[in-house]
Design goal:
The complex is a heterodimer of chains A (about 240) and B (about 110).
Chain A (H helix, E strand, L loop, with lengths): L13 H18 L3 H27 L10 H30 L8 E2 L1 H13 L5 H9 L19 H8 L11 E2 H7 L6 H32 L11 H7 L2
Parallel strand pairs in A: 1-2
Chain B lengths: L2 E3 L4 E7 L10 E5 L15 E5 L13 E6 L7 H8 L4 E3 L11 E8 L2
Parallel strand pairs in B: 2-7, 3-4, 4-5, 5-6
Antiparallel strand pairs in B: 1-2, 2-6, 3-7
Classes of the chains: A mainly alpha (about 240), B mainly beta (about 110).
């Protein structure tokens, strides 16, 4: 079964699947291309594993969305282009991870963004004071089936709904690990699987910020334009043609 | 055909992608296509879950999972990494026709070595 980024994608969200597949296919083509293509690609990956990975980590941790304008079409184009550019880097990092690990098992020695999200969920399950607000602040741009733009973001959930979501985590023994920032400070040599997985998950967080921004834009369009059908049923190009 | 159905049990063929495995004998399973379809029940026994792919959302199944059987996914995916970390057996049945799997039943695992 072919793996998709999204479970049952709406027409608009198929854009994200297309981007993900295009970038993966591009990397696969570079890996299996002619002799010089492969040499250049592998040289690039070696440089990335040597030092470039730290630049990408910094880029992702300092990532900021482009400011919104008053024009919906401009905002959509800016966000979708930003998603494609970002996802290209996520895929490249994934390729580097595959090269670095060469099919071997490995463990992760730091807290990724996903680990931090699960910890925050556990705090909600344990009724920790302020846990709900803290979760919405740091992980509100995430969602179930997160790349599906029609899915509500966690910041749109009530505290009760977040409590239900978090319930399985109440007694689950999450492992204690150092933060990613601390790990990157202490391990400055060649990229390890821990570095690369941390970058991947941080990149995913940035990508989901963009998806959340697109969702906000689409809901605004839904409210302010007289569309013939629900906004998520339009593909990106279709919607751009429809908007004035 | 990768999945055989007998009167009593379905067999999923594939391999464990975690070092932690489990008994491959008959065990109850439920199919979870999307995490929002699943409700946590503290009183439920540990069971096998059949999922379409290794999306990170399915981490919420870990506390109640005896084994997770996925139709697709990479050993490098975050869920696979977490399964190794938390000792949850993860079985990749990549030839499974996910749509043909019933919502629940009894299954056995035919693990390739």
């Amino acid at each position: 079964m072919e793996e998709s980024l999204i479970h049952n994608p709406t027409a608009f969200s198929k854009y994200f699947d297309v981007v993900a597949r295009r970038e993966s296919d591009r990397c696969a083509a570079l890996l299996s291309g002619g002799f010089f293509t492969r040499i250049r690609f592998h040289a690039g990956v070696r440089l990335f594993l040597s030092s470039g990975y730290r630049d990408l980590y910094n880029e992702f941790t300092q990532y900021a969305l482009a400011p919104r304008t008053d024009d919906a079409k401009t905002n959509l184009r800016t966000c979708t282009d930003a998603f494609a550019a970002l996802y290209d880097k996520i895929v490249y990092n994934n390729v580097a991870l595959a090269v670095q690990t060469r099919g071997e098992s490995f463990s992760i020695e730091l807290l990724t963004v996903e680990d931090e999200k699960n910890r925050a969920l556990k705090n909600i399950a344990r009724d920790a004071r302020g846990a709900c607000e803290a979760f919405r602040l740091h992980f509100g741009h995430y969602a179930l089936n997160a790349y599906e733009v029609a899915e509500r973001r966690f910041r749109e959930y009530t505290c009760e709904e977040l409590g239900e979501l978090a319930a399985p985590m109440k007694s689950f023994p999450l492992k204690d690990k150092i933060t990613a920032a601390q790990y990157f400070t202490e391990h400055t040599g060649r990229a390890t699987p821990s570095h690369l997985v941390a970058i991947r998950e941080r990149g995913k967080s940035c990508a989901l910020e963009i998806v959340a921004s697109i969702r906000r834009e689409l809901l605004t369009i839904q409210d302010t334009h007289d569309l013939e059908r629900p906004v998520f049923t339009y593909g990106l190009d279709d919607l751009l043609r429809t908007l004035p | 055909m990768h999945m055989k159905q007998t009167a009593d049990a379905h067999t999923f063929s594939g391999s464990f992608i975690t070092s932690r495995t489990c008994s491959v004998e008959q065990m109850p399973f439920i199919k979870v296509s999307h995490i929002s379809e699943w409700k946590h029940d503290e009183r439920a026994e540990r069971r096998a879950y059949v999922i379409p792919t290794l999306h990170a959302d399915f981490f919420l199944l870990f506390p109640s999972a005896r084994v997770i059987i996925s139709a697709a996914g990479s050993p490098l995916s975050h869920l696979a990494i977490l399964a190794r970390e938390y000792d949850v057996p993860l079985f990749l049945a990549s030839e499974m026709d996910y749509a043909e799997v019933p919502e629940s039943g009894i299954c056995t695992l035919n693990a390739h070595t």
